[in-house]
């Protein structure tokens, strides 16, 4: 979630892209360019594809919290041949975000199947998804519980009569996994795993998930992660299209929605100090069940663990919070070049248009990192000359990083009007653990590149 920015004049100066250290923090030793790069590249990852509307994706994370509360996930759906990419931004700990990153894609993949296929699959289960960059496992005791919940979900899905719709499938998966996490917090359901599931229930997470199948891009968002589409115009200029809306108090429609769900005598307390019940910044989220459960259930499950503070003030007509996503569909064209999905740690520092321009420049400059090769053996001299001119232009924008997500993080933290300021970047990376969270959040970024030739051949 967004870092709380406190203006300490002796520590900070303001720039067009955020805040950077000065004064007192100059006393900290400066990192070398090589040390900065090593830190930025620790969590980067790239995956390439062939014969698909997605050519590749780059992803990376830079922690602020220790441990990091953001998670990410990417997977191919094996039965529908679509690609899922998601970012999960946790709060009150990372447990809810971690659980979502391990479970949600299976729920989405199952929701995309026709009920008859779901029934056949439940009789002879195989892998629904192929995950990429999956570096950790859930505890065995949780796996058994989660497997039981998923089997029940499959049983319910097989009874559905409506036609499969990707937008509805994403919404169904979001709501069902939130429901299952709520049920799993009950000691009678969780059994020996109840302590772990209650920890997940008291934490929360926002999420942004994209599902790409052929030329169809679907984006589901709950909270304040954002997805931005980078496209080129007829004049070869970059445009940025936001495919998500932030669900927070800056969103007037979202505030109106919540107020309409509660009686008039709560209009002054539902949202207070720009937060839900004066406490929670996102107005939609997974978990956070102390904003969803009845007062009786809170007293039974959470008050014994957390004390009376488990009950938010002015808690009269729950639920106040939902995990229901807003889902957007976009039909991809060859003009659509990439998608940037990121937690608000990135968007706190740069705008969607800045992000798109940075990735666009990175695309042009990245080709200069590899030796020059002709794309085909027989080319006219004019064509070769055009390629060389393009490469010459690209050399002006030659990036330090091959990974576009790393490039975005580097520029978000150290960018100025004149390029990346190493001193600024070094100081932000050297902030001690007890200070860094005040000035920047965890940053997680995934950049998805589309195959223009593939999209050119896709039927309308």
Topology:
Layout: E1 12-15, E2 18-21, H1 33-40, E3 45-48, E4 54-62, E5 70-77, E6 83-91, H2 95-111, H3 115-123, E7 129-132, H4 140-157, H5 166-184, H6 187-190, H7 194-202, E8 204-213, E9 216-222, E10 226-232, E11 238-242, H8 252-260, E12 271-272, E13 275-276, E14 286-287, H9 295-301, H10 303-306, E15 326-331, E16 336-342, H11 344-347, H12 352-366, H13 381-395, H14 404-414, E17 415-416, E18 419-420, H15 422-429, H16 433-439, E19 443-450, H17 452-457
Antiparallel strand pairs: 1-2, 3-4, 4-19, 5-6, 5-7, 6-8, 8-9, 8-14, 9-15, 10-11, 10-16, 12-13, 16-19, 17-18
Largest sheet: 7 strands, antiparallel
- Net shape: globular
User: Which residues sit in consecutive blocks of at least 5 with pLDDT less than 50?
Assistant: 2-22
**Rg measurement, Å:** 23 Å
Give the count of helical stretches: 17
What is the overall pLDDT average?
Answer: 89
Query: Helix/strand-derived class?
Result: alpha+beta
Portion in helices: 25-40%
Compute the number of strand runs: 19
Percent in strands: 15-25%
- Ends: how far apart? 39 Å
């Amino acid at each position: 979630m967004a870092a709380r920015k406190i203006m300490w004049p002796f520590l900070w100066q303001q720039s067009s892209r955020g805040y950077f250290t000065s004064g007192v923090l100059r006393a900290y030793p400066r990192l070398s360019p090589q040390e900065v790069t090593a830190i930025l590249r620790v969590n980067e990852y790239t995956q390439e594809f062939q014969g698909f509307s997605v050519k590749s994706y780059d992803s990376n994370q830079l922690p602020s919290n220790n441990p990091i509360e953001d998670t990410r996930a990417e997977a191919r759906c094996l039965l529908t041949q679509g690609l899922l990419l998601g970012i999960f931004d946790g709060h009150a700990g990372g447990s809810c975000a971690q659980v979502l990153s391990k479970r949600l894609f299976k729920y989405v993949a199952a929701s995309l199947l026709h009920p008859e296929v779901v029934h056949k699959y439940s009789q002879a289960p195989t892998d629904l998804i192929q995950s990429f960059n999956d570096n950790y496992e859930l505890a065995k005791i949780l796996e058994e519980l989660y497997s039981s919940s998923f089997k029940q979900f499959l049983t319910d899905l097989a009874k559905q009569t409506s036609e499969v719709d990707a937008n509805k499938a994403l919404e169904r998966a979001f709501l069902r996994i939130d429901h299952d996490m709520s049920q799993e917090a009950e000691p009678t359901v969780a059994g020996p795993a109840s302590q772990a599931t209650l920890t997940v229930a008291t934490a929360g997470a926002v999420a942004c998930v994209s599902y790409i199948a052929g030329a169809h891009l679907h984006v589901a968002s709950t909270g304040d992660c954002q997805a931005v589409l980078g496209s080129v115009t007829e004049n070869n200029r970059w445009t940025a299209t936001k495919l998500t809306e932030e669900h927070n108090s800056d969103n007037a429609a979202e505030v109106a929605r919540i107020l309409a769900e509660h009686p008039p005598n709560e209009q002054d307390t539902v949202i207070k100090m720009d937060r839900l019940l004066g406490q929670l910044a996102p107005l939609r989220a997974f978990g956070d069940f102390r904003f969803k459960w009845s007062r009786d259930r809170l007293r039974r499950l959470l008050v014994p663990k957390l004390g009376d503070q488990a009950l938010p003030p002015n808690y009269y007509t729950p639920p106040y919070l939902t995990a229901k996503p807003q889902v957007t569909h976009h039909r991809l064209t060859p003009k659509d070049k990439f998608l940037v999905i990121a937690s608000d740690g990135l968007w706190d520092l740069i705008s969607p248009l800045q992000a798109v321009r940075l990735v666009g420049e990175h695309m042009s400059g990245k080709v200069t990192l590899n030796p020059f090769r002709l794309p085909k053996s027989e080319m006219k001299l004019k064509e070769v000359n055009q390629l060389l001119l393009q490469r010459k232009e690209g050399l002006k924008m030659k990036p330090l990083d091959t990974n576009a997500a790393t490039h975005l993080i580097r520029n978000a933290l150290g960018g100025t009007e004149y390029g990346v300021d190493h001193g600024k970047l070094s100081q932000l990376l050297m902030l001690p653990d007890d200070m860094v969270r005040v000035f920047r959040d965890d940053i997680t970024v995934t950049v998805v590149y589309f195959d223009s030739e593939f999209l050119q051949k896709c039927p309308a």
